[in-house]
Amino acid sequence: MESTTAPGGMRELLRQLDVFAGDLPDFDPGAAPDDPTTLFVEWLHTAIDAGIQEPHAMTVSTTAADGGPAARALLLKDVADGGWQFAVHNASPKGRELLGHPAAALTFHWVRLARQVRLRGPVLAEPPERSAADFLARSPGSRAEALMGRQSQPLESREELDRAAKHSAERVAREPGLVEPDWTLYTLRPTSVEFWQGDRQRKHTRLAYRREEDRWTKTLLWP
Fold first, then answer.
1. Is residue 149 part of a domain?
2. pLDDT tens digits for 189-212?
3. SS3 label, residue 125
């Protein structure tokens, strides 16, 4: 095999990788429900039943302070009342970005099914009691990590992290009801939702939902 460091080596390596392998599910956009929430839940259940690892993982894209894009993977917390929920620490970069520009895009990608769902819309903070309930529902280790409150700050050494983690875990053990005040549960209420079903012949199916006042419209898009 040609070295990936040679001119064109990486390009050739990537071109040889297989895509859209395996049995792909069918998707009839003509039978899609009027509400994208219903279709999303159906697709999520399909991903779960197919044994997709972490099917609730999604890319959350926000607007950075310099106006550029910023993205990272988070876990979906709930889908309820037409909103998709996730939680962040407000002192983290993503937390500050949402406070400065309360809008986001979510992307779900289930590779084995060749399916993708993209959402865009405003993001609203839930009341403090709901954020607290979400925080307390996390594992002790996750709560201890959030209570350190230093996400993305420079780290001098792994030993420094170990000491801080030990101290935070001890706090959680002593005070099991302790809540991080900057922990915030957010709900994205999409203005657009797009469902993409891949096809081996590249005749991909794209169905876009757009919110118009109090109803959704559906439109097929070219691949």
1. no
2. 999 999 999 999 999 999 999 999
3. strand
